[in-house]
Design brief:
The chain is built from 10 helices and 14 strands. It is of the alpha+beta class. A 10-stranded mixed β-sheet has the order 4-5-7-14-8-13-12-11-10-9. Strands 1-2-3-6 form a 4-stranded antiparallel β-sheet, with helices on both faces. Strand 11 and strand 12 form a beta hairpin. Helix 2 runs antiparallel to helix 8 and helix 6 crosses helix 9. The radius of gyration is 21 Å and the shape is globular.
C-alpha cells in the first residue's frame, strides 16, 4: 500500500467522497464540502492499494494554541478520523488485516508536528489498536442510534408515558412544527440563550453554521426544523443527512418555553420525517447527563465510539 499526505488542492473531491460514502466509517462530517466549511486548510492522507485504488483516507485538521500546533476535532463535527474501503474477502480475519494495513499506512505519514491530537472516530470504526500501538490513548464515548427502518408507530409505541404526555401538551397549546430554509431563527435562539448564560455554540461559529445549512439544503443533506408558538419561533435545529444516517447536529429552544415542551414535539416530528429515508438517526450530546436522559426517552440504543488522543506535553485546557 502507498500512503501520502495531500494538500487540499491535490485531493480529488469525487474520488474522496465516493470512498467516504461507501466506507462503513464514512459520514457527512468528512465529505469534502463539509470539511471546507468547518476546517479551512485541511489536508488529507490517502492510501492506495497495489492496483491504484483509493482504499483508505483520513482528514487532518490544523490549528495552533500558545504557538504550539495541534490537530483537534473541528467544531460542528461529531466524527472525524479514518474511512476504509472494505476488503474484498468477507472473512473477519481478512477484513481486520486490511483495516490494520490501511491504518498503519496512514499512521506512517501522519504529521509529527502536532503537540496534541484528538479525534472522534466513527462508531463503525472498531479496530483502533494501530493507534494504541503508536502511543495514542483510547477513550470510550457514547452516542444514541435510533433505527429508522421500522414503522413510526413502532417507535412511538415505545415512548414512555411522560414523553407522550409532553408531546400532547405541546400540540394542545398550539405549538406548530415546520421546516425552514434558513438558520436565522436558530441563531437568534442560540444568541438569546447565550445572553442568559446558557451557551451551547459560540457566536463566532454562527457564520459556519449558516454556511453549513445553506450548502446542505442545496445538496438535500439537511432539514432545518422549527417549532413556533403564537407566531414566534421558539425552538429550532439542524438535522444533517448522508447516505447512511441522519445526525441531530444541533437543537435549541428559548428557555422561557421549556414547560411547553417544544423540543419534544420537534424531535418527534423529525423522527416521523426521517422514517425510511436512512438507516438510523444519530443523536448528539449523549455524554451530557441531562441531554442523555432527554434522548433516551425516544427509544434509541447506546453505541460506543472511540476518541483518540496523543499529547507530547502535559497542558491543561486542551
Amino acid at each position: 500500500m502507498k500512503a501520502e499526505l495531500l494538500s487540499r488542492d491535490r485531493i480529488p473531491d469525487h474520488e474522496w467522497d465516493n470512498l467516504v460514502n461507501s466506507a462503513p466509517q464514512g459520514s457527512i462530517y468528512i465529505q469534502c464540502w463539509y470539511m471546507d466549511i468547518i476546517a479551512p486548510g485541511w489536508k488529507g492522507i490517502c492510501v492506495w492499494d497495489k492496483a491504484g485504488l483509493l482504499c483508505g483516507l483520513m482528514p487532518i485538521n490544523y490549528g495552533s494554541k500558545l504557538l504550539l500546533k495541534h490537530s483537534l476535532q473541528p467544531q460542528l463535527s461529531k466524527y472525524w478520523g479514518m474511512a476504509i474501503r472494505p476488503a474484498l474477502s468477507a472473512k473477519p480475519s481478512d477484513q481486520y488485516s486490511h483495516q490494520k494495513q490501511v491504518a498503519e499506512a496512514v499512521l506512517s505519514v501522519f504529521p509529527k508536528e502536532f503537540s496534541f491530537v484528538s479525534y472522534n472516530l466513527s462508531p463503525n470504526y472498531d479496530y483502533a489498536l494501530p493507534f494504541h500501538w503508536q502511543g495514542y490513548s483510547l477513550y470510550a464515548r457514547y452516542t444514541f442510534l435510533l433505527n429508522l427502518q421500522q414503522p413510526y408507530e413502532h417507535i412511538q409505541a415505545n415512548y414512555p408515558t411522560e414523553l407522550r404526555r409532553e408531546i400532547r401538551i405541546a400540540r394542545e397549546q398550539g405549538m406548530e412544527f415546520g421546516l425552514s430554509e434558513s438558520t436565522e431563527n436558530l441563531e437568534l435562539i442560540l444568541s438569546e440563550n447565550a445572553q442568559e448564560g446558557h451557551t451551547i455554540l459560540e457566536s463566532r461559529y454562527f457564520s459556519r453554521l449558516r454556511e453549513i445549512g445553506q450548502a446542505a439544503l442545496k445538496r438535500n443533506q439537511a432539514i432545518i426544523p422549527e417549532v413556533s408558538y403564537k407566531g414566534r419561533v421558539i425552538a429550532a435545529g439542524i438535522i444533517l443527512r448522508d447516505e447512511k444516517s441522519s445526525y441531530y447536529m444541533i437543537g435549541n429552544m428559548l428557555r422561557a418555553y421549556r414547560t411547553h415542551h417544544p423540543l419534544q414535539l420537534m424531535t418527534d416530528e423529525i423522527i416521523r420525517l426521517q422514517i425510511g429515508e436512512v438507516a438510523a438517526l444519530d443523536f448528539s450530546g449523549m455524554m451530557d447527563r441531562r441531554i442523555e436522559s432527554f434522548w433516551r426517552k425516544f427509544g434509541p440504543v447506546p453505541k460506543s465510539y472511540i476518541n483518540i488522543r496523543k499529547s507530547r506535553i502535559p497542558l491543561k485546557g486542551w
